[in-house]
Fold this protein.
Amino acid sequence: MPLTFAQAVTERTLSRRTRLCVGLDPRLDAYRDADHLKEHTLDVLEATAPYAACVKPQLAFYEALGLSGMHLLEDLCAAARTLGLPVILDGKRGDIGSTAAAYAQGWLAGRHAGAALTVNPFLGFGTLTPFVDTARQHGGGVFVLVKTSNPDQADLQGGGLSERVAAEVARLGAQEPLGEGEYASVGAVVGATHPGDLAAFRALMPRALLLLPGLGAQGAQAADLAGAFHPGGTGALASASRGVQYAGGLDVQASVQAARAYRDELNAALGV
Ligand SMILES: O=c1ccn([C@@H]2O[C@H](COP(=O)(O)O)[C@@H](O)[C@H]2O)c(=O)[nH]1
């Protein structure tokens, strides 16, 4: 049996000693042309893989490139599979149930079986069902937006809404029979930019993998993220995109150094 997404992340976290999620968000204006973008993005993936627990392409950047972006995304996912890197497709999908089912089919089944997808619960908890069911059927995962990293999240996510979503993530996770140290297929996005809240969300969602975006370019620091992890340094993934891909302009060795430094800072913060 192949490992599920959550098992693969935990296995890689422990065997490679890394909790870093490398984000790959290629921006056309940074490159000479689309071929240059493709070459650099795949080079960064391969070069930083030894320091990565997983990789997270933001679908918006691939969609912005049209058909060539979709081809690049497929090449990137195939390369990640070859490198043994679990993939998180950051698409923040969500819609009425029948449309959600189509999104789930497209991003969590077929050639994306075993990947994870970020999902938006704003249309109601029932609309998460097709994503959760498809992820479970195909050994994948979902990361539900609980408290996003941007400052204006508080406009809508304050007033206890994030905690209500967290309770639903915990309820879904409790449906899954898990062994000691295992995580559910239903995880949560909690911004690394909210370090003071991480321990509380960790406690609210004990079986959920937490995806923590915001490391680097958005100002979050590895040293502040320990509250999101379980003892031994499992259960969360800290994500940096621009801070790795464009760490030194387009110098791939600078990306490698940045990924290694984030990995080391996270491990030091956790004492692992
Ligand atoms: O709450 C969230 C959820 C997702 N993101 C995504 O993560 C990366 C962050 O990029 P950086 O360059 O590391 O700032 C990007 O793809 C966002 O769409 C997030 O930032 N916050």
Remarks:
- The chain has a mean pLDDT of 98.
